[in-house]
């Protein structure tokens, strides 16, 4: 069908015929199995005993405690540098209480005095601003007043002398929310100036650091997937401890993720859908990457495995709507069966839909039972409602493109937010994590809360922006936001449309940041972090900068098997560590 079904991750822009199988797309589905084949070969060669030596775990615990003591004994400025370094290494889940206390103390300090930032360099003010907002505290932009002129604009002349100041300001600007025009200007100015330095002065000692910053802003990056350049504080002993901890922690994480991959692989093989439905994708390990990246730490190990199951089924349902080529009548019956949530409802369905519905029914009910046993709440009603929304979105898109008529861009996006599958997965994640299970939050999950809607929009627009193929830009049967927007705006170019989408993605990120700071947001912080991590996963999943799925495969191989390579190159007053 002519719609972009990312289903929480991957683009499927293809023309749909309601009366016959889509053989071109069937071939495309089959051609996308290389990733899984490679990992299946790797999995078959894994040793049965994946246990790490007990000495590694003991050493890990010792270094964690050593870093905690350093956090408690350091002064306020050094503590912030430690927190920044810990977060950039992706090991913050070991220090949640200590980080929370450090940031709360800094927030209380800012509440007591409005003058603290006037005695510091811009780089320190920007770091404090960023860390406060990342932790959910509203840090006002007036901390930057000293760097504005009488018109409220950025004093450009203050920034040309120190590149570190510009980098810090650029990183802080990634936390801006709607209406913060000064930070909009700061982001644009710092980006342009840093880019001009990196592009003109290749031999500049900070050229690589600048390029890395512009490509991978801290707030929009998953540290375990992207190399991080860390500015560690002087020659403090904790810099060595952090390097050691990152290396040991990588071993533990790799071991745990390998065990989870084996569990996912066994479940997927036992489910048998890929064997029974030859036209669907067989990429369970790829799908596991979403929960692996979005839920960090050993405490969510079982949740990562459990979430891969409904995520896999989204892809299978997507392929049935896309690849099988069923009629609108058959797809409507399929949707009605899910609405009834009764195995008897599948009697009139084609065999492939029967097999899929039975798996969906059993996996969802099992998930609900496990949640009830763990948390004392039966989520089946909310889970089914999320699936019904998804099926109806798929069906609406099928009707649009079976008719050959493109909807307006806004109509497309309204349905496209739902057809990403984001709502389904995050509803499952909310119940699986088991935090904040209040009546208010459960009611919120029954709807389409702002944080999920915003994340869905980011994923949909990024999918369409990166998935659009110049070679078929004149084919109006290939539906995407780009095609719908061009139809709505006669005479607009592809380049102008892409700029519009990029700007809209940036605006959605501001709204996502606002959810981080919203005082009325009662969703648990762990769930909010997962939503942000899903948005941060986009550059890897959407082949940014020409990356291909094989590039993503290399990221995962490195993450699971190679570990972190930390290299310290100490300048005069700090060490740069690449993790």
From TrEMBL:
Pfam families recorded: Terpene_synth, Terpene_synth_C
What Gene Ontology molecular-function terms does this entry list? magnesium ion binding; terpene synthase activity
List, for all copies, the residue spans of the domain called Terpene synthase N-terminal: 52-214
Q: Which GO terms describe its biological process?
A: terpenoid biosynthetic process
Query: Which prosthetic group or cofactor does it need?
Result: Mg(2+)
Please indicate which superkingdom the organism of origin belongs to. Answer: Eukaryota
PANTHER family, per this entry?
A: OS04G0344100 PROTEIN-RELATED, TERPENE SYNTHASE 4-RELATED
What is this protein's record name? (3S,6E)-nerolidol synthase
């Amino acid at each position: 069908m002519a719609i972009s079904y990312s289903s929480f991750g991957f683009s499927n822009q293809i023309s749909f015929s309601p009366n016959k199988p889509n053989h071109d797309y069937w071939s495309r589905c089959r051609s996308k199995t290389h990733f899984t084949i490679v990992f299946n070969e790797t999995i078959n060669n894994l040793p049965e005993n994946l246990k790490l030596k007990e000495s590694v775990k003991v050493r890990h615990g010792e270094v964690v405690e050593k870093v905690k003591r350093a956090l408690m004994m350091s002064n306020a400025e050094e503590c912030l540098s430690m927190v920044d370094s810990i977060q950039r290494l992706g090991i913050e889940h070991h220090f949640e209480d200590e980080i929370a206390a450090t940031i709360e103390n800094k927030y209380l300090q800012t509440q007591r005095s409005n003058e603290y930032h006037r005695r510091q360099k811009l780089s320190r003010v920007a770091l404090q601003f960023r860390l406060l907002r990342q932790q959910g505290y509203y840090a006002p932009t007036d901390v930057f007043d000293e760097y504005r002129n009488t018109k409220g604009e950025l004093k450009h002349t203050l920034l040309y002398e120190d590149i570190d100041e510009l980098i810090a300001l650029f990183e802080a600007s990634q936390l801006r929310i709607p209406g913060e025009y000064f930070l909009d200007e700061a982001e644009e100015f710092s980006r342009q100036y840093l880019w001009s330095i990196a592009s003109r002065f290749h031999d500049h000692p900070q050229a690589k650091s600048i390029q890395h910053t512009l490509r991978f802003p801290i707030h929009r990056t998953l540290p375990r997937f992207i190399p991080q350049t860390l500015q560690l504080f002087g020659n403090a002993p904790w810099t060595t401890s952090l390097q050691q901890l990152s290396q040991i922690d990588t071993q533990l994480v790799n071991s745990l993720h390998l065990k989870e991959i084996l569990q996912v692989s066994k479940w997927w093989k036992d489910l048998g859908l890929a064997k029974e439905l030859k036209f669907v994708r067989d990429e369970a390990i790829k799908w596991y990457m979403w929960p692996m990246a979005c839920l960090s730490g050993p405490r969510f190990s079982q949740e990562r495995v459990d979430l891969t199951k409904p995520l896999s089924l989204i892809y299978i349902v997507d392929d049935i709507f896309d690849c099988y080529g069923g009629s609108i009548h058959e797809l409507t019956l399929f949707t009605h069966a899910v609405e009834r949530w009764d195995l008897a409802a599948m009697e009139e369905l084609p065999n492939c839909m029967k097999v899929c519905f039975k798996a969906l029914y059993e996996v969802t009910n099992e998930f609900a039972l496990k949640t009830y046993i763990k948390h004392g709440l039966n989520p089946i009603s909310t889970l089914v409602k999320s699936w019904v929304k998804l099926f109806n979105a798929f069906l609406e898109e099928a009707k649009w493109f079976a008719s050959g008529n493109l909807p307006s861009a806004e109509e497309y996006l309204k349905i496209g937010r739902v057809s990403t599958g984001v709502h389904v997965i995050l509803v499952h994640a909310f119940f699986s994590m088991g935090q904040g299970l209040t009546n208010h939050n459960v009611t919120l999950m029954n709807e389409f809360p702002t944080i999920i809607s915003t994340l869905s929009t980011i994923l949909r627009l990024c999918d369409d922006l990166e998935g659009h193929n110049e070679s078929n830009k004149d084919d109006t049967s290939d539906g995407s936001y780009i095609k719908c927007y061009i139809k709505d705006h006669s005479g607009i170019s592809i380049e102008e449309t892409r700029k519009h989408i990029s700007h809209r993605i940036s605006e959605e990120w501001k709204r996502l940041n606002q959810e981080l700071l919203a005082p009325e947001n009662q969703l648990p912080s762990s769930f909010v972090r997962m939503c942000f991590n899903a948005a941060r996963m986009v550059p890897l999943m959407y082949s940014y900068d020409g990356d291909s799925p094989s590039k993503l495969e290399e990221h995962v191989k490195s993450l699971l098997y190679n570990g972190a390579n930390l290299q310290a190159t100490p300048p005069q007053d700090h060490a740069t560590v690449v993790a």
